[in-house]
Amino acid sequence: MAISAAQIKELRDATGAGVLDCRKALESAGGDMQKAAAALREKGLATAAKRADRATLNGVIDIYSHGDGRVAVMVELNCETDFVARTKEFRTFAHELSLQVAAGSPRFIRPEDVPAEVLDGEREKARALAIEEGKPEKVMDRIIEGRLEKFYDEHCLLRQVYIRDDAKKVGDLLQETIASTGENIVIRRFARWAVGEEIG
To answer: Which of 124, 126, 151, 166 can bridge 144 by disulfide, Cβ–Cβ 3.0-4.6 Å?
Structure first.
């Protein structure tokens, strides 16, 4: 089956992969755009997984102000090379993260970042609520774990539902960006301020 330049361009626009990679993926998938895109994502993730231990000393800081200056966000996104840090795709991703932080008000990047004392407090709250609701002791642990998972989904950036597509989590968006750039990408830190909020 002959692969057209238009097909290659469409796949390249969708994935950010190189022309030759797009051609090979389309040929392997018999021209099926979705299969080819999935193969490229998988290849990109495999490449990124091999690079996961590489230093991410380049990147950008994105600053976003919302609501006539009532909310401000700063996000530091790191990658391996200055070349990738300067790409439109990388900078767009950094800005999308800033928008997500402004809208979602996460407190942590990933579940592993949640301090033990915060988790203990959430477990206690979940247990007290389950007791108040009259839940049986034999299912208490499962209920507590379920509520902790919900806590992670609400308060950890990578677990939040992406504001532009509720079929995706922010972690999925990160994996897609890693796959298309072929580089290790790390959300290093973020800060969110709102006028009148308590400091502490």
So the answer is: 126
Please state, for a pLDDT cut of 70, what percent of the chain lies above it.
92
Residue 163's closest CA among 98, 100, 74? 100
> What φ, ψ does residue 115 adopt, rounded to 5°?
-65, 150
Q: Which domains does the chain have, with CATH numbers?
A: 5-51 (1.10.8.10), 58-110+156-194 (3.30.479.20), 115-154 (1.10.286)
Amino acid symbol at 191: A
Please give the pLDDT value at position 138.
85
How far apart CA 124 and CA 112 sit, in angstroms, is 19
**49 has pLDDT over 80:** no
Specify the pLDDT at position 106: 97
Give the C-alpha separation, 9 to 12, whole Å: 5
Cβ atoms of residues 158 and 185 within 8 Å: no
Residue bearing tokens 């790390």: 186
